[in-house]
Description:
Blueprint: E1 7-11, H1 12-21, E2 23-27, E3 30-33, E4 35-40, H2 50-55, E5 63-65, H3 69-82, E6 88-93, H4 97-100, H5 103-111, E7 116-122, E8 156-159, H6 166-178, E9 185-191, E10 198-202, E11 209-211, H7 220-230, E12 236-240, H8 242-246, H9 250-260, E13 264-266, E14 281-284, H10 291-299, E15 302-306, H11 312-315, E16 326-331, H12 334-337, E17 343-346, H13 349-355, H14 364-384, H15 394-404, E18 410-413, H16 418-425, E19 434-436, H17 445-460, E20 466-471, H18 472-477, H19 481-488, E21 493-498, H20 503-511, H21 535-541, E22 545-549, H22 552-564, E23 569-574, H23 600-610
Parallel strand pairs: 2-11, 4-5, 4-6, 6-7, 7-9, 8-9, 12-13, 12-15, 13-14, 15-16, 16-17, 18-19, 18-20, 20-21, 21-23, 22-23
Antiparallel strand pairs: 1-10, 2-3
Helix pairs in contact: 3-5, 3-17, 9-13, 10-14, 15-16, 15-22
Amino acid sequence: MTIENKTVTLTTAQAIIRWLAAQYIEIDGVETRVCGGGFGIFGHGNVTCLGEALYNHRDELPVYRGQNEQGMGFAAAAYAKYHLRRRFMFASASAGPGTANLLTSAALAHANRLPMLLLCGDAFLTRLPDPVLQQLEHFGNPTLGVNDAFKAVSRFWDRITHPAQVMNSLPAALNTMLDPADCGPAFIGLPQDVQGWTYDYPEAFFEKRVHRIRRQAPDMEEVIDAVALLKTAKRPMIIAGGGVQYSGAVAELTAFADATGIPVVETIAGRANMTNDHPLNCGPIGVTGSDSANTIAEKADVILAVGTRLQDFTTGSWTAFAHDAKIVGINVGRHDAAKHMSLTVVGDAAICLASMDTDYKAPTDWTAFAQEERAKWDAYVAENCKPGNRPNSYAQAIGVVNDLMDPRDRVVAAAGGLPAEVTANWKTLDIGTVDVEFGFSCMGYEIAGGWGARIAQAEKEPDADTVIFTGDGSYMLMNSDIYSAVLTGKKLIICVLDNGGFAVINKLQNNTGNESFNNLIADTPTAVNQVGVDFEAHARAMGANAETVSNPAELGEAFKRAKAATNTSVIVMNVDPYEGWTTEGHAWWEVGTPHITTSDKVREKHIEQEADRHKQRKGL
């Protein structure tokens, strides 16, 4: 009998996990499991069947017990980001609110084009016990439930209604997650009864399979057109996005820039494509960028946008570039390559850049101008991060920590003011060591994402550290993965910078002429008992080392102790909510302001905001 005719009887859940354990990926000539394991919180919707299957594969696919499903999803996203989308983890939640908690993290993964497998409980397919605990009933559509909400935030969505379907669904989900152009979260709904149903699966389905990430070659006609346009450039610029790292194109980008002398600016996602000291690294671009990059951008006549989706923080809501600047979109995703009437080169960034064989050289005076602008920005950052130059600030904390980092340490930040401050002030010490989650600008990613990043980092670089910057607002939203890190022995260094509320939104409120209201705790009328949070005591209660410092010098000494420790450490420092912000390097950003108001200040700021709208490029 041939192996194709051999079968094995398994439940749906057993088949899913056995298949996952058999999937490998080749990375730099080494085969490893493409799924690194998963995160799970068990409930009645996933414990009895999926939990049973996971127990029997606990060595091949380790399951990390989360404290919050949203945090599990963030951790899975950060794990995938660390592995440059070549490996992923699953997140499993019970039916109902457990699954609903994963919606935000699925949206984050979707916005950031990150692979994540969501294995979530669902209502009974037979409907015999309906309505069951935590089931949402839609009177006119009994098939509709919470899981359908994931259709908007998934690249692949399926609900298993028969055990045989996993033989089609699982490969389709994996192919989506590993596709450079379509990469994103895959959702599979698992009705509670179907999870336990059996089927005679062909044993061949569970044979080891080795996958490779597809490298799509560009159409050479598109490359020829791009090179022809580049040769007309008097003031060229490269925007390097996160896709440069995902495609493994850092070497090709650097070689192309060195050969042509074209200045390179980085997006937030591409913040560690070049080290800080590379002579053609001209800084971060956009709303939270640098004067150097934005000055170059507004003068550039030909822009090579490599591996970027050109979101509004990169483009300054499309005011950062001259109206007549020509854009070449180099991207594996057609959707991103074609934005704003770009000349498209659709394909893998490494192959595209290597294919652009040209003897073109940027004018030396243009390259020199870009480097002079970068030197000015470096001087500003040095002064901006200097301790004691003003009240405690984010920039001071960033500067102190940056100076004490080892080259392969990883920094993680997300929503609030810290992404802007890290993006503008961080000096990249090594390639791929910066994770600023600003694709979905998601509060709560910091600690949970740091935990996921540390799990991945420990697999490859156990001696490096994961360092997290978080504000008090994000800490209050989601902090329980401090406990997860302690439980699993995945050491984190967490810097909690307390500015008394949502200070960056208070700054936006004030900058648009509005009075401080409901952002800082002190300016919240309903906060009748002005009590501060003892973050140090709270972190200690979850098993972490913790201390509170009063200034950047003390922060530096505490950071050294945290580096030497083996346990997770939390360092708390107050920062001023009004002074100390990075005031330079900002491009225009479109926010909605009132067209009519009784406030003179709001009216003036609306007029001021609209005054720069003429810079905005038109196009899709």
